[in-house]
Write a structure and sequence with these properties.
The strands form 2 sheets. The chain has a 5-stranded parallel β-sheet, sandwiched between helices. Strands 1-2-3 form a 3-stranded mixed β-sheet. The chain contains 21 helices and 8 strands. The chain is an alpha/beta fold and 451 residues long. The two termini are 28 Å apart.
């Protein structure tokens, strides 16, 4: 397998593990330079990307290579300035997986940071996202005056990034084109840190305050970053007072983002908040069929039903599974049998018998609410700890079928009646609080999907 084909296959694996925004931000203009003696050397465009991949994504990249080749021991990163040579190699190499799939390259607009592949033509509207879609359409028609800010939230891979970028692309191509900027919150924070180090904070603030439309993806990553939130608050106010449109996405509603400043939370709630839920079975089938039409590929209903039945939560995984099947067909020139289909998709289809542990539940709840796990066990009666502790109790009961005495014993030796009360409290809250249900779904995704 050529280095370029190998890297495209690895990127397909990586894309399933991280947010679309982060994938586009940190893997743009990267490539495999060499593959020798179990060591992979990856070329990156600058030192910032090199440091980020080494520190944050190295394990994911290494696992992806091992899934494909099996014998990789080490990953190295070097800054590669030969950008023109890379582009030439891409043009000259006509037989690669990306071309076989007829997928569009990531040609990010340098002015807006938007990816033109995200548009409304490829966005499937159904009951799970129709409110968010309708709100987005209203924003396009009346920028800065209706639903400002527009705050969209939902779990991983349900289409938030697609929708906010589709809005940006639609606005940017209008006749009276407005200036648009899309940025993941992690990039926003990284640029701010650089500006602080260089003493150019005012220039940073002026840069973000000049746009007619500012789109911030995955705002939850600003949690706990006090200085970043302070600067963002000033930029937000400046744009808002000028009737400039602000669009924000998150994996949870504002009130569920830990350590988010009250004034920011209040600003977010002053606009339109719309959630995007998981697609139902019929919608998942529609998404797969739409994708096959785009790729000019015909697949029988048995394959589509198998994929849609086994991948129920994540559109990104749904499309990733479809791409794997198409790659198999392209390489082998046959439609996979059912046993072959099961084998092709075994790494991304969740095992229905998948189990977890009370420690994993406690760890993920603590991480979600940004508290130390010891606080769940200690005799701490603070409200910000009591609720997460009761959620741990509830999930241990629901997911592990643990007894009440066992639950109490694992949470600081509490009495079984405390566990009964905690589980009952969450059950009652779920009946009247949709946000809590969303939080629990996100936590369960983390429990079962984070390794």
């Amino acid at each position: 397998m050529k280095n370029q084909d190998l890297w495209q296959s690895v990127l397909g694996e990586v894309e399933l593990s991280i947010s679309k925004a982060n994938f586009i931000t940190w893997f743009k203009n990267t490539n495999v330079i060499s593959n020798k003696a179990g060591k992979i050397i990856i070329g990156v465009p600058n030192g910032f990307t090199k440091e980020w991949l080494e520190n944050k994504y190295n394990k994911i990249i290494l696992n992806a290579f091992r899934n494909i080749l099996g014998n990789i021991k080490e990953i190295g990163y070097v800054i590669n300035y030969k950008e023109e040579e890379k582009k030439k190699e891409k043009r000259d190499n006509k037989i690669n997986l990306k071309q076989q799939l007829n997928l569009q390259e990531y040609k990010i607009n340098e002015k807006t940071n938007l990816n033109p592949k995200y548009d409304f033509n490829s966005f499937v509207v159904a009951s799970f996202n129709e409110l968010a879609f309708a709100a987005s359409q209203s924003v396009i028609k009346d920028l800065g005056k209706v639903y400002n800010p527009l705050f969209l939230y939902g779990g991983v891979g349900v289409g938030k990034t697609h929708l906010v970028q589709a809005v940006g692309n639609e606005i940017a191509k209008q006749k009276n084109a407005k200036s648009v900027l899309y940025t993941p919150s992690e990039r926003f924070a990284a640029e701010l840190i650089s500006s602080i180090q260089e003493g150019t904070v005012e220039r940073f603030k002026n840069k973000y305050s000049k746009y007619d439309v500012l789109i911030i993806d995955d705002i939850q990553f600003l949690a706990g970053k006090e200085k970043t939130q302070e600067i963002f608050f000033h930029i937000f106010n400046d744009l808002y007072q000028k009737n400039k449109q602000i669009i924000i996405s998150s994996d949870r509603p504002p009130r569920a983002i830990p350590t988010l400043e009250e004034r920011l939370c209040s600003r977010f709630e002053g606009g339109m908040i719309a959630d995007i839920n998981r697609p139902d079975f019929e919608t998942r089938i529609a998404i797969l069929k739409k994708k096959t039409l785009e790729l000019n590929i015909e697949l029988n209903d048995e394959i589509l039903i198998y994929i849609a039945s086994n991948i129920q939560k994540n559109i990104r995984e749904l499309e990733g599974a479809l791409n794997r099947v198409i790659v198999f067909i392209k390489l082998n020139n046959i439609i996979p049998s059912h046993p072959q289909l099961v084998k092709i998709l075994k790494n991304i289809i969740s095992n229905p018998q998948k189990r977890t542990t009370y420690k994993k539940i406690a760890d993920e709840v603590a991480n979600f609410y940004d508290i130390h796990i010891n606080e769940l066990i200690n005799k701490n009666r603070k409200r910000e700890v009591v609720k997460p502790r009761q959620i741990v109790m509830y999930l241990m009961r629901e997911e592990l079928k643990s007894s009440y005495p066992f639950i109490g014993s694992k949470l600081g030796g509490r009495d079984h009646t405390t566990a009964i009360y905690g589980c009952g409290k969450i059950e009652r809250e779920l009946e009247k609080d949709d946000n809590l249900e969303q939080e629990l779904n996100l936590i369960k995704e983390r429990i079962y999907n984070n390794n």
